[in-house]
Design goal:
heterodimer; A: alpha/beta; five-stranded parallel sheet; 28 helices; B: mainly beta; Rieske Iron-sulfur Protein; seven-stranded mixed sheet; three-stranded antiparallel sheet; 0% helix; globular; disordered N terminus; disordered C terminus; binds siroheme; binds flavin-adenine dinucleotide; binds iron/sulfur cluster; binds FE2/S2 (inorganic) cluster
Chain lengths: 816, 121
């Protein structure tokens, strides 16, 4: 196998390796040097790490397992000090490595302004994780002050991050306006205003004279004599390609290492990639062209033909809330015209620069919604004279052919990131759909991970599917429950009732399941439908329940469990608290925490201890809080008329009454409730599945709120005069939901599907119907209102769950 | 049956619920022993290759288990992760004594080609 040595584990070389392994993982034996004591991470995401929006772990692109799997020999924390081209070896600080092919990917080093005091502790650049960590550390001191020298992309991201961490920040910028290389004066002005509104001081036309301090930085002095106090100075004035190694090795170096279109240097066995490269006189400082280069290097290494060329670039600033975009060349010059749109009230500014009938530059501030479209017109050199009149208003205003809602998505470049959580770009999604012949959203999620985390990009992913699959994709078609059947949840529920199917094997038989015993998706759903539809007849199938519902505790990431007992309506007592304290000590439970649901969570309980923990809690009168279940969770309440000077009704009492009646019931999705004693709403009833707001006149009953993945305020179902009526309406409402909801469909989604009218018709308008639902719930409760903990603590149910079957740990012969 | 030395009796078939699992402690960590709907038994390491989730706590379907932490699906026969994800855990040989219905476990790994469920010997 040929030996490939890579110097620098940065953004560019990381991509080279990925492409290489995708095509031919066995082509090279690879050694990877990195001066930083770590492997590849997403350097551009240091800004969100600084601002606290992400953690370092989130931005690691290649972890240890990746290097191991791909058999890369890692020499992290070791700098390469020389390249001996005659002997074809690379000299690292800890020894030599021979190469057949070599990649120089040393990136660049920050430029440090050569002023007095630049070496003082507390003066740093902004390039790597260590710099970021120093900034985070310094910002921890209350009232600490920072100066950022440089008002370009990097400097402003540093300033915004430090400000978000509470520092007092001043940006010192030499030019007349911020980001002068990307923005024109007007946009620079709007940006300055925006930053000032966030509490960041901005000084333009300000030249740094010296950095003050004796043993540590104390401030910055400007040319005009102004002194700004600071314990931290961040220099972000520019970068210099790291070329020393290449130069000393005798490679051809201009402003950076010169390469040809196949990314070879003047030595044909040596490639260079990234910010350390110069191609046709151009240097690079953004990742998009580096990724292109990386593709070319990987191909060249495998002797495939591919050529790099310089493309149009666009810039965005990664400061949450500052929407700006710039691309192309927007300098004024002869033969150019410009179109400008301003909306001062909204802080919107757009400027387009035309040359002939082409768009050559665009600057946008405040509203960047059409940026992709403009960028495309520019890249494709589309003639724009016909739409000149309305061009500035964006794509939606272009008459003629009817507006295609998909156009915006279609126009996105292949490397546009669609799924932020998993870093999946458009090309990957459309490519995988075609390559693997995917037709459902679930498949796309499984293969690409796109929209499988927070789900906010689901809409975009569906649009991409529609684009790629054309008419054959129909998002509104009935979604089968899972791969085991073609029937949707609604059909299955109806058929269970109509055919009186009373066990999972019966359902699978009668409804022609395609698998022998279902899967982890359909079995829990079927089990719920049968539990809800045939109380007293159906025997709960524990093996079809997710572990939490099977053992009545929440599994934790290390395989231990958490235990949350009920606190009726949020009330507790000395006796309960004492029992909790005793349990925590007796079983050595590592964490005790107040939950977001206003009760107490004991975390880190060993599975074998669960029955004994429950027995002790039972002895003090406590039962399972079902914090694990698609079931009634909490009923939060406020102190209400018992104590509060504004309380209108007994909100605590109603909360307790509801919880005591409804606990133990299983529901399609979790059900959280709250009762507030007046419209001040201290129990946050208006974001719950069911909420009550008490008023002098009675009870306002709300439902279908949520505050998790989606935040949704409740809708008002009705208003009633007495507590008994309120109680009856709530119970009936939940029963209707139990009978109609699809498994995992929370109340607000159920409402969206069936509509308010049908719910009101059953629960509000028709008293008989309401009573019917109420009675059915009450009947069901005679079977389910039982403490699952007590059943298990006594050893009567599922005893096998809590003990290992056998202990062979003393047998030695097995050892490998 | 092979030599008594390499097989350990760990319990009865009925100790494990159908489509369920139990754990066995061994010198190299916890194993999960599964029983399928057809009364086959399989043993694999009780540590998901993703983030170490206890596979014995997952939902069993056919000859696979879905990890309780993040839903990877693992083959009970080979220990390999199924579907688009990658990874594997070690699989071990288990068999059922046809006379007594006792489950026996061997602490040497099952070979990948001949996954061991010796339900019907
Ligand atoms: C313990 C607790 C966090 C805390 O430390 O405070 C918690 C912990 C978990 N939540 Fe939560 N949620 C907790 C209150 C909340 C709240 C606040 C509330 O209840 O008022 C919300 C937002 C309100 C809401 O649901 O609308 C909340 C929205 C979620 C969601 C998003 C649900 C949604 O439909 O959007 C999930 C994910 C899910 O259910 O699929 C979730 C899931 C989880 C799970 C069960 C994750 C899991 O599957 O393992 C966590 C279990 C940890 C454990 O073992 O204890 N948790 N979770 C809170 C327990 C409350 C309780 O006493 O029962
Ligand atoms: C905070 C921040 C935010 C940014 N935001 C964006 C953005 O939003 N969009 C964008 O397009 N770009 C952004 N950039 C720029 C982008 O990160 C760089 O263009 C990119 O990282 C350059 O990649 P590279 O592989 O050439 O160099 P690097 O990623 O810097 O990697 C070079 C590696 O080589 C190592 N090295 C150097 N010399 C040696 C040696 N002699 N021996 C061993 N190892 C050596 C270095 O330690 C380094 O780890 C940002 C940069 C920073 C710092
Ligand atoms: S928000 Fe809820 S689900 Fe997310 S980590 Fe916290 S407890 Fe877990
Ligand atoms: S630990 Fe098993 S899927 Fe994550």
């Amino acid at each position: 196998m040929q030996k490939l040595v890579v110097i620098g584990a940065g953004m560019a070389s990381g991509r080279v390796l990925e492409h290489l392994f995708e095509t031919d993982p066995t082509a090279y034996e690879i050694t990877l040097f990195n001066a930083e004591p770590r492997g590849n991470y997403n350097r551009i995401m240091l800004s969100p790490v600084l601002s606290g929006e992400k953690s370092y772990e989130d931005i690691v692109t290649h972890d240890e397992a990746w290097y191991t799997d791909n058999q890369v020999t890692c020499r992290f924390g070791e700098k390469v000090v020389a390249i001996d081209r005659a002997r074809k070896v690379v000299v690292g600080e800890k020894g030599e490595v021979p190469y057949d092919k070599l990649i120089v990917a040393t990136g660049s080093v920050p430029f440090i302004v050569p002023v007095e005091g630049r070496d003082l502790p507390g003066v740093i650049a902004y390039r790597d994780l260590d710099d970021t960590n120093i900034m985070i550390e310094r910002s921890a001191k209350p009232g600490a002050k920072a100066v950022v020298i440089g008002g370009g992309l990097l400097g402003l991201e540093a300033a915004a991050g430090l400000r978000l961490r509470g520092m007092d920040v001043t940006v010192v910028h030499l030019a007349g306006h911020l980001m002068e290389r990307q923005l024109d004066e007007a946009a620079g002005y709007l940006l300055k205003k925006d930053l000032e509104r966030r509490g960041i001081a901005v000084l333009t036309k300000a030249s740094t004279q010296k950095i003050l301090g004796t043993s540590h930085v104390e401030g910055v002095e400007l040319a005009d004599g102004t002194v700004i106090e600071a314990e931290l100075v961040v220099m972000a004035v520019g970068i210099r390609p790291s070329v020393q190694l290449a130069k000393e090795a005798g490679l051809e170096v201009g402003r950076a290492i010169t390469v040809d279109a196949t990314m070879r240097t003047s030595d044909s066995d040596i490639y260079a990639v990234g910010e350390c490269v110069e191609f046709e006189g151009t240097l690079f400082g953004l990742v998009a062209p580096l990724y292109e280069q990386a593709k070319v290097v990987a191909k060249s290494l495998l002797d495939e033909e591919e050529r790099f060329s310089v493309k149009e670039l666009s810039t965005k600033l990664k400061v949450t809330g500052c929407d700006l975009f710039s691309a192309g060349d927007f300098a004024e010059s002869e033969g150019r015209e410009e179109i400008v749109l301003r909306d001062p009230a909204k802080g919107v500014y757009r400027r387009l620069v035309l040359e002939g009938d082409r768009l050559v530059g665009a600057v946008m501030y405040g509203d960047t919604s059409d940026s992709n479209w403009f960028f495309d017109l520019m890249k494709n050199r589309t003639p724009v004279s016909e739409m000149r009149e309305t061009l500035i208003f964006g794509q939606a205003y272009q008459g003629g052919s009817p507006l295609d809602p998909m156009a915006a998505v279609a126009a996105l470049p292949d490397d546009a990131e669609i799924c932020g959580c998993n870093g999946v770009c458009k090309g990957k999604i459309t490519g995988t759909i075609t390559e693997k012949g995917l037709t459902s959203l679930d498949d796309v999620r499984a293969h690409t991970k796109a929209s499988s985390s927070c789900g906010t990009c689901t809409g975009l992913v569906e649009q991409l599917m529609a684009l790629t699959l054309g008419d054959s994709f129909n998002p509104n078609a009935v979604k089968p429950m899972c791969g085991c059947t073609d029937l949707g949840h609604g059909d299955v529920r109806r058929l269970i009732k109509a055919k009186e199917l009373k066990s999972i094997p019966e359902v699978m038989q009668e409804l022609e399941w395609k698998t022998s015993c279902g899967c982890a998706k359909c079995r829990p759903a079927l089990n719920y439908y049968l539990v809800a539809d045939w109380p007293g007849e159906y025997v709960d199938d524990k093996q079809s329940r997710f572990i939490n519902e099977r053992v009545h505790a929440n599994i934790q990431k290390d395989g231990t469990y958490s235990v949350v007992p009920r606190m009726w309506g949020g009330m507790t007592s000395a006796k309960e608290l004492r029992a909790i304290a005793d349990v925590v000590e007796k079983f050595d439970i590592p964490s005790v925490k107040c939950t977001g649901g206003a009760r107490i969570d004991m975390l880190g309980v060993k599975k074998e201890d669960l029955p004994a923990v429950w027995a002790d809690l039972n002895a003090a009168g406590m039962v399972s809080g079902a914090a694990y279940g698609k079931a009634l969770r909490t009923v939060k309440s406020c102190v209400g008329s018992d104590w509060c000077r504004f309380g209108t009704q007994d909100s605590t009492g109603l909360g307790i009454r509801i919880e005591k009646f409804m606990w133990g019931s299983w529901t399609p999705g979790k059900v959280k409730m709250a009762v507030s004693g007046c419209p001040r709403n201290c129990a946050e009833a208006t974001c719950k599945d069911v909420g009550v707001i008490c008023t002098e006149a009675g009870y306002e009953i709300h439902f279908a709120g949520a505050a998790g993945l989606d935040i949704k305020g409740t809708e008002v179902l009705t208003q009633v005069a007495t507590e008994d009526e309120a109680f009856e309406v709530i119970v009936a409402l939940v029963q209707l939901y139990r009978e109609q909801g699809h498994y995992l469909e929370r109340m607000y989604k159920w409402l969206k599907r069936v509509g308010m009218d049908s719910i009101k018709a059953a629960i509000v308008d028709d008293l008989d119907k309401r009573r019917h639902y109420f009675d059915r719930f009450a009947y069901s409760q005679t079977f389910y209102r039982k403490d699952p903990w007590a059943e298990r603590a006594s050893g009567a149910v599922a005893a096998h769950e809590f003990r290992p079957m056998a202990d062979l740990s003393s047998f030695k012969e097995a050892a490998e | 049956m092979t030599s008594a030395k390499s097989w350990h009796r760990i319990g009865q078939l009925t100790d494990i619920p159908k489509l369920g699992a139990r754990c066995v402690l061994t010198p190299f960590g916890r194993l999960a022993v599964f029983r399928t709907a057809d009364d086959e038994v399989y043993a694999i390491e009780d540590r998901c290759p993703h983030k170490g989730g206890p596979l014995s706590q997952g939902i069993v379907h056919d000859t696979s288990v879905t990890c309780p932490l993040h839903n990877m699906v693992i083959s009970l026969k080979s220990g390999k992760v199924l579907g688009p994800d990658e990874g594997a855990v070690r699989a071990f040989s288990v068999r059922i004594d046809p006379e007594t219905s006792a489950i026996e476990l061997s602490l040497t790994e099952a070979s990948a080609e001949a996954p061991y469920p010796v339900a019907a010997e």
